[in-house]
Amino acid sequence: YLISQVIARLSVPAFFVFAGFFLLRATHGADVSGWLGQVKKRIRTLLIPFLLWGLLVLAAFYAGQELGFIPTGSDSRVGHIDALSALETLDLLVGATRYPVAYQFWFMRDLIICVALSLPLIFLPPAAFASLLAVIGGAWLAGIQVTEIPSMSAICFFCLGGYIGIGGSKLRFDAGGKAIVVACFIAM
Q1: Dist. CA 34–CA 27, nearest whole Å
Q2: Cα gap 77→67, rounded to integer Å
Q3: In the prediction, which pLDDT does 184 show?
Q4: Which of 19, 35, 62, 149 has the most beta carbons within 10 angstroms of its beta carbon?
Q5: Residue 65 CA: distances (Å) to CA of 72, 103, 105, 150, 173
Q6: In this structure, are residues 25 and 34 in contact, taking their beta carbons and an 8 Å threshold?
Q7: The predicted structure's pLDDT at residue 16
Q8: Long-range pairs for 97-100 at CB < 8 Å and ≥24 separation?
Q9: What is the pLDDT of residue 169?
Q10: pLDDT at 182
């Protein structure tokens, strides 16, 4: 239980912490062009692989439905692919209103959204960032879902990593920041 239900569940929050750390460490205090440079890198390393894998899984579902191996309609989590409109197919691919067709990559979708919305974070002074993190962390701890996509877990841990990233490589932060980190890890 400890390995499969406790330790293994730390992987996705840790993924968001590291992603936020590396993005904000590289862009905090920079200008918009510095942020755009980092976003371009993430398009190549996140968005393109996400879309390619999604297309492969979508093609596999389509082929499976055409061959009769995969159910259609209400028996299928993807519906009948032939009957979907272009917009519904795009939603199925990227998961704008539900999980993406490549379900296992929901966390990549959430990270792509966090990166796309991270521009204001590069301008926040550390004290304001800590206050924002306290609000987001409090909402996450209270189970308040401000948004379905991205998940509050994604937002909370991405911001936590970003806050650590702007604190420098020695991971120095004030007592309030330490309390936030401790509370988040205890809650996980």
Answers
A1: 6
A2: 17
A3: 58
A4: 19
A5: 7, 17, 22, 30, 54
A6: no
A7: 96
A8: 97/149, 100/50, 100/54
A9: 41
A10: 67
State the Cα–Cα distance between residues 93 and 52, nearest whole angstrom.
Answer: 10
From CA 152, how far away is CA 145, in angstroms rounded?
6
Alpha-carbon span 101 to 121, nearest angstrom = 30
Secondary structure of 44-102 in HEC code, one letter for each residue:
HHHHHHHHHHHHHHHHHHHHHHHHCCCCCHHHCCCCCHHHCCHHHHHHHHHCCCCCCCC
Higher pLDDT, 169 or 42: 42
Instruction: State whether the Cα torsion 161-163-166-170 is positive or negative.
Output: negative
CA dihedral 150, 154, 160, 161 (to 10 degrees): -110
Q: Do 149 and 110 contact (CB within 8 A), yes or no?
A: yes
Distance of alpha carbon 13 from alpha carbon 24, whole angstroms: 16
What does the DSSP 8-state code read for residue 123?
G
- Between CA 164 and CA 93, with CA 144 as vertex, the angle to 5 degrees is 80
By C-alpha distance, which of 133, 134, 132, 136 is closest to 145? 136
In single-letter form, the type of residue at position 65 comes to Q
